[in-house]
Amino acid sequence: RWTYMERRTIFSEPVYLSLCIRGCLDKANELKVKTISMPAISTGIFRFPKPTCAEIMFDTVLQYFQDTKGSTTLEEVRFTNFDDDTVFIFKSEFEKRFPQSTDKPPKKEETQQQQKEQEQQQQPPPQQQQQQPPQPQAQPQSP
Fold first, then answer.
1. Residues 115, 111, 76, 92: is their CA dihedral positive or negative?
2. C-beta of residue 56 within 8 angstroms of C-beta of residue 21
Protein backbone atom coordinates (compact mmCIF):
# COMPACT_ATOMS: atom_id res chain seq x y z
CA ARG A 1 0.00 0.00 0.00
CA TRP A 2 1.33 3.41 -0.98
CA THR A 3 1.40 6.39 1.28
CA TYR A 4 -0.08 9.66 0.08
CA MET A 5 3.36 11.16 -0.65
CA GLU A 6 4.47 8.08 -2.59
CA ARG A 7 1.39 8.23 -4.78
CA ARG A 8 1.78 11.97 -5.30
CA THR A 9 5.34 11.61 -6.56
CA ILE A 10 4.39 8.89 -9.05
CA PHE A 11 1.20 10.44 -10.45
CA SER A 12 0.05 14.02 -10.74
CA GLU A 13 -3.43 15.25 -9.85
CA PRO A 14 -4.55 15.42 -13.51
CA VAL A 15 -3.69 11.74 -13.90
CA TYR A 16 -5.73 10.91 -10.79
CA LEU A 17 -8.67 12.87 -12.18
CA SER A 18 -8.46 11.01 -15.47
CA LEU A 19 -8.25 7.66 -13.64
CA CYS A 20 -11.29 8.61 -11.56
CA ILE A 21 -13.33 9.47 -14.64
CA ARG A 22 -12.22 6.33 -16.45
CA GLY A 23 -13.15 4.29 -13.39
CA CYS A 24 -16.64 5.82 -13.41
CA LEU A 25 -17.07 5.01 -17.10
CA ASP A 26 -15.84 1.45 -16.60
CA LYS A 27 -18.18 0.96 -13.64
CA ALA A 28 -21.13 2.32 -15.63
CA ASN A 29 -20.37 -0.17 -18.39
CA GLU A 30 -20.04 -2.98 -15.85
CA LEU A 31 -23.51 -2.05 -14.53
CA LYS A 32 -24.77 -1.98 -18.14
CA VAL A 33 -26.13 1.55 -17.95
CA LYS A 34 -26.63 3.68 -21.06
CA THR A 35 -26.19 7.15 -19.54
CA ILE A 36 -23.94 8.58 -16.87
CA SER A 37 -23.82 12.09 -15.48
CA MET A 38 -20.69 13.51 -13.90
CA PRO A 39 -19.96 16.84 -12.22
CA ALA A 40 -16.75 18.82 -12.53
CA ILE A 41 -14.91 16.49 -10.16
CA SER A 42 -12.49 18.11 -7.67
CA THR A 43 -13.25 21.70 -8.73
CA GLY A 44 -15.15 22.50 -5.55
CA ILE A 45 -13.50 21.98 -2.20
CA PHE A 46 -10.24 20.76 -3.78
CA ARG A 47 -10.11 23.85 -6.04
CA PHE A 48 -8.83 21.96 -9.08
CA PRO A 49 -8.80 24.43 -12.01
CA LYS A 50 -12.09 24.21 -13.89
CA PRO A 51 -10.66 24.67 -17.40
CA THR A 52 -8.13 21.88 -16.77
CA CYS A 53 -10.88 19.68 -15.37
CA ALA A 54 -13.02 20.23 -18.48
CA GLU A 55 -10.08 19.36 -20.75
CA ILE A 56 -9.29 16.20 -18.81
CA MET A 57 -12.90 15.09 -18.66
CA PHE A 58 -13.43 15.55 -22.41
CA ASP A 59 -10.09 13.88 -23.20
CA THR A 60 -10.86 10.91 -20.97
CA VAL A 61 -14.40 10.38 -22.23
CA LEU A 62 -13.36 10.62 -25.88
CA GLN A 63 -10.46 8.25 -25.27
CA TYR A 64 -12.80 5.83 -23.49
CA PHE A 65 -15.10 5.63 -26.51
CA GLN A 66 -12.10 5.18 -28.82
CA ASP A 67 -10.73 2.41 -26.62
CA THR A 68 -14.02 0.55 -26.32
CA LYS A 69 -15.01 0.98 -30.00
CA GLY A 70 -18.68 0.18 -29.50
CA SER A 71 -18.16 -2.58 -26.94
CA THR A 72 -19.64 -0.47 -24.15
CA THR A 73 -23.24 -0.12 -23.08
CA LEU A 74 -22.69 3.60 -22.53
CA GLU A 75 -24.38 5.77 -25.12
CA GLU A 76 -24.35 9.15 -23.42
CA VAL A 77 -22.10 10.97 -20.96
CA ARG A 78 -23.49 14.13 -19.41
CA PHE A 79 -21.46 16.76 -17.65
CA THR A 80 -23.78 18.14 -15.02
CA ASN A 81 -22.76 21.44 -13.53
CA PHE A 82 -24.95 23.96 -11.78
CA ASP A 83 -22.96 27.17 -11.41
CA ASP A 84 -22.75 29.52 -14.38
CA ASP A 85 -18.95 29.74 -14.39
CA THR A 86 -18.46 25.97 -14.65
CA VAL A 87 -21.26 25.60 -17.21
CA PHE A 88 -19.63 28.28 -19.36
CA ILE A 89 -16.21 26.61 -19.15
CA PHE A 90 -17.59 23.18 -20.11
CA LYS A 91 -19.71 24.66 -22.89
CA SER A 92 -16.66 26.48 -24.26
CA GLU A 93 -14.62 23.27 -24.18
CA PHE A 94 -17.42 21.44 -25.99
CA GLU A 95 -17.67 24.13 -28.69
CA LYS A 96 -13.89 24.13 -29.10
CA ARG A 97 -13.91 20.38 -29.76
CA PHE A 98 -17.17 20.17 -31.72
CA PRO A 99 -17.66 23.51 -33.49
CA GLN A 100 -19.93 22.05 -36.16
CA SER A 101 -22.46 20.82 -33.59
CA THR A 102 -23.49 24.38 -32.72
CA ASP A 103 -24.33 24.99 -36.40
CA LYS A 104 -26.52 21.90 -36.80
CA PRO A 105 -30.10 22.35 -37.92
CA PRO A 106 -32.64 21.20 -35.35
CA LYS A 107 -33.61 17.55 -35.32
CA LYS A 108 -36.75 16.54 -37.19
CA GLU A 109 -38.62 15.87 -33.93
CA GLU A 110 -37.71 19.34 -32.64
CA THR A 111 -38.91 20.97 -35.86
CA GLN A 112 -42.21 19.08 -35.73
CA GLN A 113 -42.74 20.07 -32.11
CA GLN A 114 -41.99 23.72 -32.93
CA GLN A 115 -44.50 23.63 -35.81
CA LYS A 116 -47.20 22.24 -33.52
CA GLU A 117 -46.51 24.94 -30.95
CA GLN A 118 -46.69 27.67 -33.61
CA GLU A 119 -49.98 26.30 -34.96
CA GLN A 120 -51.44 26.26 -31.48
CA GLN A 121 -50.36 29.86 -30.92
CA GLN A 122 -51.93 30.98 -34.22
CA GLN A 123 -55.29 29.37 -33.51
CA PRO A 124 -57.74 31.65 -31.74
CA PRO A 125 -58.64 30.45 -28.28
CA PRO A 126 -61.86 28.47 -28.13
CA GLN A 127 -64.79 30.75 -27.48
CA GLN A 128 -66.66 30.14 -24.35
CA GLN A 129 -70.38 29.89 -24.64
CA GLN A 130 -71.96 32.87 -23.06
CA GLN A 131 -74.86 32.13 -20.91
CA GLN A 132 -77.97 33.96 -21.98
CA PRO A 133 -79.96 35.57 -19.24
CA PRO A 134 -83.16 33.67 -18.63
CA GLN A 135 -86.03 34.90 -20.79
CA PRO A 136 -89.17 35.89 -18.97
CA GLN A 137 -91.89 33.39 -19.64
CA ALA A 138 -95.47 34.29 -20.01
CA GLN A 139 -97.39 33.15 -17.03
CA PRO A 140 -101.08 32.54 -17.06
CA GLN A 141 -103.00 35.30 -15.37
CA SER A 142 -105.69 34.50 -12.94
CA PRO A 143 -109.17 36.06 -13.50
1. negative
2. yes
- Max Cα–Cα distance, the chain, nearest Å: 118
DSSP 102-137: GGPPPPHHHHHHHHHHHHHHHSPPPPPPPPPPPPP-
pLDDT tens-digit readout, 73-93: 999 999 999 899 999 999 999
Of residues 90, 5, 8, 4, the one with CA closest to residue 49: 90
Stated length of the chain: 143
Are residues 59 and 96 in contact, defined by beta-carbon separation less than 8 angstroms?
Answer: no
Transcribe 51-81 into DSSP letters.
HHHHHHHHHHHHHHHHHHTT-SS--EEEE--
For 76, list phi and psi in degrees, rounded to 5. -145, 135
Q: Are 24 and 36 in contact (CB under 8 A)?
A: yes
pLDDT tens readout for residues 110-121: 566 666 676 766
